[in-house]
Specification:
- The complex is a heterodimer of chains A (179) and B (109).
- With 179 residues, chain A is of the alpha+beta class.
- Chain A has helices at residues 94-103, 127-139, 172-176; strands spanning 10-25, 30-36, 46-48, 51-68, 74-76, 80-85, 107-114, 147-152.
- Chain A has one domain (10-172).
- In chain A, the strands form two sheets. In chain A, strands 1, 2, 3, 4 and 5 form a five-stranded antiparallel sheet that branches. Chain A has a three-stranded mixed sheet with strand order 6-7-8.
- Chain B is α/β, with parallel strands linked by helices.
- Chain B is 39% helix and 17% strand.
- Chain B is built from five helices and five strands.
- Chain B has a five-stranded mixed sheet with strand order 1-5-4-3-2, covered by helices on one side.
- In chain B, α2 packs parallel to α3.
- Chain B is globular and about 30 Å long.
- Chain B starts with a helix and ends with a helix.
Chain lengths: 179, 109
Amino acid sequence: MTSEPAKPRYEMVNVRTGHVIVEHDGRSRAVRSYFSSEPSPPVEEYWEGVHVWKHWGTAQSFQFDVLDHATGGTIAYNELLGLLYYGCCQEDSAIRQIGELAHENRISIYIAITYEAPDGTPTRLARDKLVILNRLFNDRLQASKKKVLILPDLFDLYKTMSYGQIMIDFGLTSMEEGR
Amino acid sequence: MKLQELAAKLELKCVTQAFDKVVSGVYISDMVSDVIANAKPGDLLVTVQIHSNVIAAANLVDICGIVVTQGKLPAEDVVKMANKAEIPVFSTNLNRWQMATRLYEAGIR
């Protein structure tokens, strides 16, 4: 007698499409990003305290919640900008080297890149949310021998990565640039 | 159906190593986030995208293979990444609609 495979505890729900908006303040050289679910991404320049925020770039993206089937509760991942695959990093970078070592054990390393707070400081994905995110993706890999390991941005990669490297959607032309 | 059997049937050109896997469905998308949110493990991804992030997303979701349409070919570094992730990438001159109909005719649902 065979039994049905167990239903994964976590499920991605409430997927919301939108845009990552990148803004900069020319005077303080501050840069920040946020998610907008408006159909047309905002591009207006505006004052906020001492900053004059100007639109710098836009990329299609999405946000989601995770449903916990054990408790019935949902966990929002609004601070998550995207996932960065180790293979998309520079060959001599620390994360690439760690990723190559992990790959030998059939583990694929991804970095959870988060948005900056309104004051430009990085937000951090709480440890328990990272644990759930790892469980969510690994439970989907039941038939595969490989594993996914999503790490927090311990390397402050958000400062140096381009949005083309992070798994958010650029316009088709942008995505193919240089290829 | 086995992926390499399907590829031979549809005359797809394999641009990576020929990893053979079982195709359990098809997902057609050019958006990385859409693939992460909606594609299922074992799906064959049909796309026009040849960016490295497509491989990253396919690996995350456990996509069985990628068919790049309209005769596009991924760059060498993307092919290398796909080989490492053991995700076979195929190329076809057909567009996505034509590819979808061929896959349906081949019995993929």
